[in-house]
Amino acid sequence: MKMNLLSPIGVFDSGIGGLLIAKEIEIQMPNENLIYFGDTINMPYGEKSKDFIEKNSLRIASFLYKKKCKALVIACNSITSNALDVIEKKFNKKILIFNVIDPVVKSKIFLSSKRIGIIATSATIRSNFYIKKIKQNYKHLEINQISTSLLAPMIEKGLKIKKNIIQNYLNNFKSIDTLLLACTHYFFLKKEIENFYHGKVHLIDVQKIVVKEIKKKLYKEKLLRIFPNCKKINHIFYTSNLKKSTFFEKKTRTLFGKKAFIKKHIF
Ligand code: DGL
Fold first, then answer.
1. DSSP per residue over the chain, as a string?
2. Residue 14 CA to ligand 1 centre (angstroms)
3. How far does the centroid of ligand 1 lie from the alpha carbon of residue 37, in Å?
4. Class assignment of domain 105-205?
5. Active site residue 183
6. Which pTM value belongs to this model?
7. Is 69 a residue of the active site?
8. Ligand 1 pocket, residue 77 CB under 6 Å
């Protein structure tokens, strides 16, 4: 299939985490249409096996490919670290593929830091994907990573996360200078984490770094819509949870307002 300038950008995650990547795409590339898939019925991916993550993310990638997206944005660390290779193998050269890890580990962001902490889901930590990639680029860095598996499912449900849960996790990182929120759901906890560190630890701005990279590549491939869209911009958000009024719908509505069309889809 030939990639088309006017086609939408496909973004996917297990749930609401990738919505803030989608929002950043809207901010940096306001002339683009989006198709989003949140596999809310199978969430949390971070507690699933590699095999489960591979099978289900390939299904979503095929779905977005059939919707004629020009790019596929894997807005999930658990999927990137467990299934990026199989997705790339299946869709290489057919569609542009982006993920939330490579642009971050390749950026110069770690040059000025000495000790970093990484919080992520069990699936991401188990994969050792970050450690391998960061060590390739920055030999001097001391890296500590922990899985903070309680967080994503609570964020997905819209539950208030008690201060002591965050404290218990972050107390593992006493002397870091930089913290990487290596799960897209955790972007929703940025304020609480900043408060814990009183601004003394640098939080990497993953969304900005990732989307800047996507924009650069689309521009290079002449696939970036520079001129305002003559039609109204519409974003379609698919969720695999068929229940009414989920937190996914509420959050999507808050972030995208009337531009968002929410649909249900099960495979
Ligand atoms: N948002 C996903 C990530 O970045 C994880 C959420 C989940 O466990 O499903 O890893």
1. ----TTSPEEEEESSSTTHHHHHHHHHH-TT--EEEEE-GGG--GGGS-HHHHHHHHHHHHHHHHHTT-SEEEE--HHHHHHHHHHHHHHHTTTSEEEESSHHHHHSGGGTT-SEEEEEE-HHHHHHTHHHHHHHHH-TT-EEEEEE-TTHHHHHHHTPPPPHHHHHHHHTT-SS-SEEEE-SGGGGGGHHHHHHHHTT-SEEP-HHHHHHHHHHHHHHHTT----SPPSSPP-EEEEES--SSS-HHHHHHHHHHGGGEEEEE---
2. 6
3. 13
4. alpha beta
5. yes
6. 0.97
7. no
8. yes
Q: In tens digits, what is the pLDDT along the chain, a chain of 267 residues?
A: 678 999 999 999 999 999 999 999 999 999 999 999 999 999 999 999 999 999 999 999 999 999 999 999 999 999 999 999 999 999 988 999 999 999 999 988 888 899 999 999 999 999 999 999 999 889 889 999 999 999 999 999 999 999 999 999 999 997 999 999 999 999 999 999 999 999 899 999 999 999 999 999 999 999 999 987 667 788 999 999 988 879 999 999 999 998 899 999 998
As its CATH architecture, domain 9-102+208-264 has 3-Layer(aba) Sandwich (3.40)
Do domains 9-102+208-264 and 105-205 share one topology? The answer is yes
Measured in Å, residue 7 CA sits from the centre of ligand 1 at 26
Catalytic residue among 34, 73, 76, 210: 76
With a 6 A CB cut-off, is 14 part of the ligand 1 pocket? yes
**Domain definitions of the chain by residue range:** 9-102+208-264, 105-205
